[in-house]
Amino acid sequence: MAHKPTERVLSVLSLLATHPEGLTLTQITKLLCIPKSTLFPILQEMVQEKFLHLSEKENLYFIGIAAYCIGAAYEYDKTLLPYIKSIMNKISQEINEMCQVGVLDGPNILYILKQDPDVAHTIKIISYIGKKLPAYCTALGKALLCQYTLKELKNLYPNGLVPQTKNTVIDFDKLYKQLQLIKSTQVASEFEEVTEQLCCFAVPIRLPNSRQYAMSISMPLFRATKEKIALAQKLLLQAKSSIESFNMSVD
């Protein structure tokens, strides 16, 4: 005999996996034939545990970051992520700096992929998959926050913007102006906002399935020449174009 609560959770995940455009509570209720009074607390718990994401503006439910992380190993072997990883490898070897990919996880950026260059630098940047940092002070985070309104930013950070270094932007209006420029250029940057003597450049990567990534190149300030910064931005924009046009169908 099926365990009803578990069956309903799995049904919700399976349904939303086939509707990347998202579904409302009413739509999920009708499609699964589950009463709203029964379904709503299930969805609330799944959102809280990040197995679902609720877009409050449209009241649409999507597959969440927790479900993504569980399925990432399979996806990595099959479709998009190995393609992204191959591009990251080319970037890191061409520019001889670390390349990373992250996704928004609430107010934070979650690092999900990392590629170090083969060259052995005297000064090496230390990072790791699974790391989280406040999105507002990272290039990866800024690249993804550029779609937010000023009101949405303030709602995302109700306690304000906490400085990580003396260079962290902690004024909402100043941050919003930065994000508007990033939205126009599609290239984000930060200089010593997270770690002193380090800078980072990033681009947003938006895919049809509503999953939004950002890809970055990080380097110490002393290696960040004008020419190297220009190369980093060029490589990231090329990667963005390639990944966004990638066909995920498998022959």
From TrEMBL:
Keyword field contains Repeat: no
A GO molecular function held by the record: DNA-binding transcription factor activity
Signal peptide bounds: none
Residue ranges of domain HTH iclR-type in the record: 3-65
Domain of life of the organism encoding this protein: Bacteria
Entry keyword annotation includes DNA-binding: yes
Annotated GO biological process: negative regulation of DNA-templated transcription
Residues in IclR-ED domain copies: 66-251
Keywords carried by this UniProt record: DNA-binding, Transcription, Transcription regulation
PANTHER family: HELIX-TURN-HELIX TRANSCRIPTIONAL REGULATOR, ICLR FAMILY, HTH-TYPE TRANSCRIPTIONAL REPRESSOR ALLR
Identification of the protein by name: IclR family transcriptional regulator
Taxonomy of the source species: Bacteria, Bacillati, Bacillota, Negativicutes, Selenomonadales
